[in-house]
UniProtKB/TrEMBL annotation:
<protein>
    <submittedName>
        <fullName>NADP-reducing hydrogenase subunit HndC</fullName>
        <ecNumber>1.12.1.3</ecNumber>
    </submittedName>
</protein>
<keyword id="KW-0560">Oxidoreductase</keyword>
<dbReference type="InterPro" id="IPR019554">
    <property type="entry name" value="Soluble_ligand-bd"/>
</dbReference>
<comment type="similarity">
    <text>Belongs to the complex I 51 kDa subunit family.</text>
</comment>
<dbReference type="Pfam" id="PF13237">
    <property type="entry name" value="Fer4_10"/>
</dbReference>
<dbReference type="InterPro" id="IPR011538">
    <property type="entry name" value="Nuo51_FMN-bd"/>
</dbReference>
<keyword id="KW-0479">Metal-binding</keyword>
<dbReference type="InterPro" id="IPR001949">
    <property type="entry name" value="NADH-UbQ_OxRdtase_51kDa_CS"/>
</dbReference>
<dbReference type="GO" id="GO:0051539">
    <property type="term" value="F:4 iron, 4 sulfur cluster binding"/>
</dbReference>
<dbReference type="InterPro" id="IPR036249">
    <property type="entry name" value="Thioredoxin-like_sf"/>
</dbReference>
<dbReference type="GO" id="GO:0008137">
    <property type="term" value="F:NADH dehydrogenase (ubiquinone) activity"/>
</dbReference>
<feature type="domain" description="4Fe-4S ferredoxin-type">
    <location>
        <begin position="536"/>
        <end position="566"/>
    </location>
</feature>
<dbReference type="GO" id="GO:0050583">
    <property type="term" value="F:hydrogen dehydrogenase (NADP+) activity"/>
</dbReference>
<feature type="domain" description="4Fe-4S ferredoxin-type">
    <location>
        <begin position="569"/>
        <end position="594"/>
    </location>
</feature>
<dbReference type="Pfam" id="PF10531">
    <property type="entry name" value="SLBB"/>
</dbReference>
<dbReference type="Pfam" id="PF10589">
    <property type="entry name" value="NADH_4Fe-4S"/>
</dbReference>
<dbReference type="InterPro" id="IPR037225">
    <property type="entry name" value="Nuo51_FMN-bd_sf"/>
</dbReference>
Length: 597
């Protein structure tokens, strides 16, 4: 039987050496070719479980190997491919210590449902033939035989809402643009993913670029556009390459250009590289940037579906939204609407990161609970630590505490609790995370990213930054919390764009759910999580310390010394970084009140 070996060459696995694994497997296949007609090696996009990469999957047997190294290649070919024997040490081990052979039996994958990621990690993204062999461009062919109204009705029936953040109904947006008589019209793909920790859109563009193009082509047919742009953040070198290559391949096949598949419809797409400004993820700033102007937002009293790019009707959707469209056209809007919840249909892709055992790229039905996502798919919190909070929606979102782990993940519920879906970044925090410092981190980030055009955002963020820095440094004052709340509500009401109006969310949700931590910083000069250096000292609990000296090995300032050849002590050279506490398996290092204040 001819087998295919899928080697994950997404960004995470690439960083862990998957290109070398791919080369070694190719060489091992060539060496074994004399014995049998074995297989081919295919480099794919992100397979999901980045934490345990590089990942290798052997098809059609569906044997999945984790943390594969180049020196494993020969054994994989000889044992698994030729002799059909699994290699235990490369298999996933579940929580009971059992080896898991197939991807579908791994709990990380078992609870997922893949629509947007249907080809990511399965096909060679560089090959249009592979995309077509997996059903690609069949939705475009179908759409070419449909009227604009029929296409839009499917999208409306699907109930899909924009995956970029705001959750606006996609079908409604398309219809508003389709009914306008004016020309030209444009479609745009927003690939300016800039949230810290997010890599959903980059992974889709890198791992399945044709599905994005196909979705955009269908959108263009529906609204009557003949030109489209993919705005991709400059740092996504792989995604830019991948999308450009896909556009060229589609042009060669007559899927783009003067005559789409021999019809009288024409369509041209091009890639625009973003300059690295987070604000350009905001639709009006993004369009301004494409036009060659400074990427600053404008007031949205006229919607961009009416006057968008160069003042023309424009439909802008993000990468994940576009990639769902071919599925909707092929399977029918109704089928898509059967997945998820009534108000949030379909699935959602998340980049699950932070203090969670299995970090990676996941796609789950809308309505799944945070508990299931973090504990069943993500495997829970590493090192037996306690879950503290999860940030959804990146810098524009908010945090959700442990008491709300059972709420469903959908657009409206997250909003109700002060956060938002955002584009899908999900950062998990354990009890070693300080919520005040966490809010300060995001405010710092946004301070650097605010374009400065409107006062509430520009000044509000700076003022918040200074208050939060003072609190974390031990100089917080009574009334600071109330002041933060007041600034936050002014920013929400008065900022020009979504960056400013959502920027206070991390601050307001941490105050809402962790007010006691703010109070401990201000009133007691204490950081309960032991993170704020100015307020924290570390001490060794000699009753639980086992003298293993793991702490000594990680201390960057050599502040840990042995006591009479036995247990360690922390000296005055301690910098307060907390690395020793993180590494101690016996919880023998405790954060106590202290530090420089
Ligand atoms: S790592 Fe923990 S148990 Fe080991 S010596 Fe340091 S404090 Fe003691
Ligand atoms: S907190 Fe950092 S600097 Fe201080 S003892 Fe621990 S590892 Fe060393
Ligand atoms: S990059 Fe390989 S699993 Fe994500």
């Amino acid at each position: 039987m001819t087998r295919t070996i899928l080697v994950c060459c997404g960004t995470g696995c690439r960083a862990n050496g998957s290109m070398d694994v791919s080369l070694a497997l190719t060489a091992a296949v060539a060496a074994a070719a004399a014995d049998a007609n074995v297989c081919c090696v295919t480099e794919t996009g992100c397979s999901g479980l980045c934490e345990l990469g590089p990942l290798v999957r052997i098809m059609p047997d569906d044997i999945m190997y984790y943390r594969v190294r180049p020196f494993d290649a020969h054994e994989i070919i000889q044992k698994t491919v030729l002799a059909g024997e699994p290699i235990e040490r490369l298999l996933f081990k579940d929580s009971s210590g059992n080896h898991v052979l197939h991807q579908a039996d791994n709990p990380f994958y078992g609870h997922q449902k893949k629509i947007a990621l249907r080809n990511v990690g399965i096909i060679d993204s560089r090959s249009i033939d592979e995309y077509i062999a997996h059903g690609g461009y069949s939705a475009l062919a179908r759409a070419l035989e449909m009227t604009s109204d029929e296409i839009i009705r499917e999208v409306e029936e699907s109930g899909i809402r924009g995956r970029g953040g705001a959750g606006f109904p996609t079908g409604r947006k398309w219809r508003s643009a389709a009914v306008l008589e004016s020309s030209p019209k444009y479609v745009i793909c927003n690939g300016d993913e800039g949230d810290p920790g997010a890599f959903m859109d980059g992974s889709i563009m890198d791992g399945d670029p044709h599905s994005v193009l196909e979705g955009m082509m269908i959108g263009a047919l529906a609204i009557g556009a003949e030109e489209g742009f993919l705005y991709i953040r400059d740092e996504y070198i792989q995604a830019v390459k991948s999308m450009k290559k896909a556009i060229r391949a589609a042009e060669k096949r007559g899927l783009l250009g003067e005559s789409i598949l021999g019809t009288n419809r024409k369509l041209y797409f091009s890639v625009v590289r973003g300059g690295g400004a987070f604000v350009c993820g905001e639709s009006t700033a993004l369009m301004s940037s494409i036009e060659g102007n400074v990427g600053e937002p404008r007031a949205k009293y006229i919607h961009s579906v009416e006057k968008g790019l160069w003042g023309c009707p424009t439909v802008i959707n993000n990468v994940e939204t576009w990639t769902n469209i071919p599925f909707i056209i092929n399977a029918g809007g109704k089928k898509f609407a059967e997945i998820g919840t009534e108000g949030s249909t379909g699935t959602k892709v998340f980049a699950l990161v932070g203090k969670v055992k299995y970090t990676g790229l996941v796609e789950v039905p809308m309505g799944i609970t945070l508990r299931k996502l973090i504990f069943e798919i993500g495997g829970g919190i590493p090192n037996n630590r306690k879950f503290k909070a999860v940030q959804t929606g990146g810098p524009s979102g908010g945090c959700i505490p442990a008491s709300l782990l059972d709420i469903p993940v959908d657009f409206d519920t997250l909003k109700e609790y002060g956060t938002m879906m955002g584009s899908g970044g999900m950062i998990v925090m354990d009890d070693h995370s300080c919520m005040v410092e966490f809010a300060r981190y995001y405010v710092n980030f946004l301070c650097g990213e605010s374009c400065g055009k409107c006062t509430p955002c520009r000044e509000g963020l700076r003022h918040m930054q200074s208050i939060l820095t003072n609190i974390c440094s031990g100089y917080g004052r009574e009334g600071d919390i109330e002041l933060l709340e007041m600034i936050g509500s002014t920013m929400i009401d008065c900022s020009l764009c979504a960056l400013g109006s959502s920027a206070p969310n991390p601050v307001l949700t941490t105050i809402r759910y962790f007010r006691d931590e703010y109070e401990a910083h201000i009133r007691e000069h204490r950081c309960p999580a032991g993170v704020c250096k100015a307020l924290t000292a570390f001490s060794v609990n000699h009753a639980t310390c086992k003298g293993c000296m793991a702490c000594n090995a990680v201390c960057p300032t050599r502040a840990i010394v042995r006591l009479n050849g036995g247990f360690p002590i922390i000296t005055k050279s301690c910098d307060g970084c907390g690395s020793c506490r993180d590494v101690c398996r016996f919880n023998a290092i405790e954060a106590v009140k202290g530090g420089r204040v």
